Amino acid sequence: MLADFLIAELRAARATRKMNQDEFGKLANYSGSHVSAVETGGRPPTEDYVAAIDEGLQTGGIYSRLLAKVTAYDDAPVWLRPWLEYERDAVSLRSCHPLVVPGLLQTEAYARAVMASGLLGAEEVEKRLGVRLERQRAVLDQDDPPLTTFVIGMAALRTGDPKVLREQLEHLARLSERPRVLIHVVPETAGFWAGQQGPFVISSFKGGDDVAFLDDHLQGRVITESSMVAALQRSWDVVRAVALPRDLSRDLILKLVNEL
């Protein structure tokens, strides 16, 4: 987990400088007992503490930036947090969504409308909205973003308040111009298709096994068992085969914009 990684990096920063905890604490105007509590997990590494370490070691703010990544998902449901790290570290993501625009591609207004349509209270909606927007930044706006491929059903592109939906479709058209964002639409002429059984995402990594994620009404679940991931990979091949090519999908999205 990223939190454990940050603590390990702070501990390593002290060890490589051959400093004990008291010496390391003085560097940042903290006590040695405070340093010990952070390194053993008894105290969280706060913004002030990490910023003081950055200043004392003249790191250029690297630990503060890492802390921001650690805390960005504090408001995410516990069951979702493991997947968020897989998602952020992926070199490619293959995502199938038959009924709703994928979260990574949602506008703020569209995401809020989707979340508010369920049983979540207003405060929880805003918390989860913040998590979703941070996920988008962490995945799509990083310096070296993963190759992301999305297959979206037509139902997702026709559902919603017209004003919100128009903004969402325009956003999809803009995102589709990015070289590493591939958006494919399944046309209505496809009839029944495999993706209608439910949304799923497959994440691939450098030198590691693929991991998948399934969503449902209660909570999503991370799939690491190789035979189950392989089954979803076969489903992906079928899903991708019925979707329109990238350029035709973008043309269709723009056509839907003009119809609103």
List the helices and strands and how they pair.
Elements: H1 2-16, H2 21-27, H3 32-39, H4 47-57, H5 62-71, H6 81-89, E1 92-97, H7 108-116, H8 122-140, E2 147-153, H9 154-158, H10 162-175, E3 181-186, E4 200-205, E5 208-214, E6 221-223, H11 226-242, H12 246-259
Parallel strand pairs: 1-2, 2-3
Antiparallel strand pairs: 1-4, 4-5, 5-6
InterPro entries: Cro/C1-type_HTH, DUF5753, Lambda_DNA-bd_dom_sf
Protein name: Helix-turn-helix domain-containing protein
Domain HTH cro/C1-type: 10-53
Largest sheet: 6 strands, mixed
Given the structure, what is the number of helices?
Answer: 12
Radius of gyration from the alpha-carbon trace, in angstroms: 22 Å
* Envelope shape: elongated
Beta-strand segment tally: 6
Q: How many structural domains can be distinguished in the coordinates?
A: 2
Q: What's the architecture of the largest domain in CATH terms? A: 2-Layer Sandwich
Q: Structural class per helix/strand content?
A: alpha/beta
The end-to-end span amounts to 44 Å
Strand order, main sheet: write it out. 3-2-1-4-5-6
InterPro entries: Cro/C1-type_HTH (IPR001387), DUF5753 (IPR043917), Lambda_DNA-bd_dom_sf (IPR010982)
Organism: Plantactinospora alkalitolerans
Protein name: Helix-turn-helix domain-containing protein
Structure characteristics:
6 strands; DUF5753; Cro/C1-type_HTH; 260 residues; alpha/beta; 6-stranded mixed β-sheet; Endonuclease, Chain A; 2 domains; 434 Repressor (Amino-terminal Domain); elongated
